[in-house]
Amino acid sequence: MMPFIEDQLDAAYTVHRLYDPAQKVALEAALPKIRAVATGGGTGLSNEWIEKLPSLGVIAINGVGTDKVDLIFTRSRNIDVTTTPGVLTDDVADMGIALMLGVLRHIAKGDAFVRQGKWGREGFPLGNSPKGKRVGILGLGQIGKAFGRRAEAFGMSVRYWNRSAVADTSWKSCVSPVDLAEDSDVLAVCIAASAATQNIVNADVLKALGKTGVLVNVARGSVIDEDALLAALNNGTIAAAGLDVFVNEPNIRQDFFTAPNTVLMPHQGSATVETRVAMGELVLANIAAHFAGEKPPTTVN
Ligand code: 8YV
What we know:
Layout: H1 3-12, H2 24-30, E1 36-40, H3 47-51, E2 58-62, H4 71-76, E3 80-82, H5 89-104, H6 107-115, E4 134-138, H7 142-153, E5 157-161, E6 172-173, H8 177-182, E7 186-189, H9 203-209, E8 214-217, H10 226-234, E9 240-243, E10 262-264, H11 273-291
Parallel strand pairs: 1-2, 2-3, 4-5, 4-7, 5-6, 7-8, 8-9, 9-10
This protein binds 2-keto-D-gluconic acid.
2-keto-D-gluconic acid is lined by residues 40-42, 62-65, 88, 267, 269-270.
């Protein structure tokens, strides 16, 4: 989290940092007394750790993903799990659009081309216009909807697939992820990660997206079968991908480094000053509510 958010934690509580090896001994001694944990969406807290914390009452996630915290197990132990809903929606959707345009207009490739002094000496490939293209949104939650609204501003038509019915939209609903991919030029993956959505973007979905199709992922690496994605990029089953999230971050598969027509980002969807301030303030508010004996405001379990 941002230093000024962490400073506020330090001012109000005794804070132990699990990632700091120098604090290992002090942390071990404090385990029975720890009442709150602040963690990232991609990091969460394992059940093994939860079992070491008998006084734990709240896990405040600095993010919206709950895939790394067992919501049922935590509820059974009367532990509230909180997230930071709403405040990061627009920035994550912006990242999806940036990746889409980055891929369609070869932004990363162009940057390298200019720096390497190739301009004027070699040709540069034409891009593709988003205007008039079909975008398919896999997972029509808040982020998916924000992505769709932005895509419409670029002249794209929107369709989606969602696990449950979505009432407040006039966009076309597709019957399956394969059906959605077949009807899309750009497939934007915005779906929450869970056991049910693991590898939901599989070889069949990528085949259906097709050889001119572009994949964008701002959700979680685990919702894509990365073997199938790397194969699809390397053998031209799909045209290109823009990826902000991966399995096993930050130690992602090295095959991504050489995958053709691929723009990679180090999980930066919510990483703006403005949004990280708002997220941090929600983390602080949730932890403060717990210590005040109140229900944390954005409890999700
Ligand atoms: C954060 C995220 O980058 O919201 C999420 O689930 O993955 C991101 O917003 C992450 O939580 C880091 O703290």
